[in-house]
User: Fold this.
Amino acid sequence: MNLKDPDDRNLAAAEYVLGTLAGEDLVAFELALAGENGLRAIVARWEHRLGEVSAMLPVQEPPPELWERIDLSLDDRPRPSPAVGSPTPTPRTTNPGPGVSLETIVAGWRRRVAAWRIATGVATTVALGALAFIYLQRPEQVGQVTPLIAVLKPADSGAVWLVSAQTGQTVIRPISQPQLAPGRSFELWAVPANGTPVSLGLLDPQGPTVLKLPPERLARVAPGETLAVSIEPAGGSPTGQPTGPVVYTGRLAKG
Amino acid sequence: MSPELYAVALRLLRRPELAQDAVHDAFVQIWERAASFDSARGSARGWLIAIVRYRSLDMLRRLGRRQDDLDVDEIVLADPDADPSERLGLSEDAARLRRCLDGLSLQARQCILLAHVRGYTHDELAVRLERPVGTVKSWIRRGLAMLRICLDS
Assistant:
């Protein structure tokens, strides 16, 4: 394996993604990957190419308790710092013991967020970041789930959202810290082919948002349609259509 | 997406409790690394699947593999050209990958799929296909090189 040679480099990246790179070659490749951005792009390209293999194989619904476990672990972690100057809430320092209820954990988390809000004040514009990330599933007939996924990119700044859905509800978490002027709200929109946005609800920039999306509303969000987040007056758009700047957009793709 | 991610981990690790660990760990990583994702370089789908696969492959390497895990049946992919209902469900990217895989030699296709879907190493492939490791390696490299040409054309 000679990582200086373009063809060898590309094949090494392919084998890295495939999982067959091993031993010294794997170590050398991972070192090169950590230090060199050009290689990262080649790897991402192969991840995209080979990722479609699983689209041709059966899916398997994970047990519901897996989501609870993931939720608890994420609550338990500090948010990754978004970018320059943006504050990060104090991470939880102790793990909840087995006797601690979910309500206690959530309450503790909310208290920390509230304290953080007071301590830092509220910023005036949408925060720094790279992209917004939406992860949706929509329940369909007979317990079948058609997952939807979209990457929402901001016009000039941004934050990262992670959205997951269990039966009947969709939970959206901000990952980095999107900031909002006082008296403003983030509103999530589906923009269908006819161009008339349909509101999906308001997003809380400080913590998880639970959207209870009626099936008929969610049914209008089809693969290939656009999702957008706009800044609206507190409580949402007064007109039922976006009135403020659209800060993130992305297209939905079938997951 | 999560049923697809869970299925990916389950096919690699074969045991539900391990697959759940892999998906759990992958989501924590996704949470931590989401800001580094660059959609200009690849799809979010590909990125998510890759994170679950890397985590699962790490676990496979660490835990070792049960011998009976190697005794698996053929990997049957949905055929985009056969059944209209299946074709509707497959993205254009998946359909193209399928056609490009079909253009490879049987050995190269088998090796690439077993490595991708079941996490086979070069050595495990050599045992399973009763061929020298060097032969398996060159099948894979040739297959991946052809796949790249086909997918990028």
In short: The beta strands of chain A are 132-139, 145-154, 161-166, 169-174, 184-191, 198-203, 209-211, 226-233, 246-254. Chain A is about 30% helix and 25% strand. Chain A touches chain B through 62 residues (CB under 8 Å).
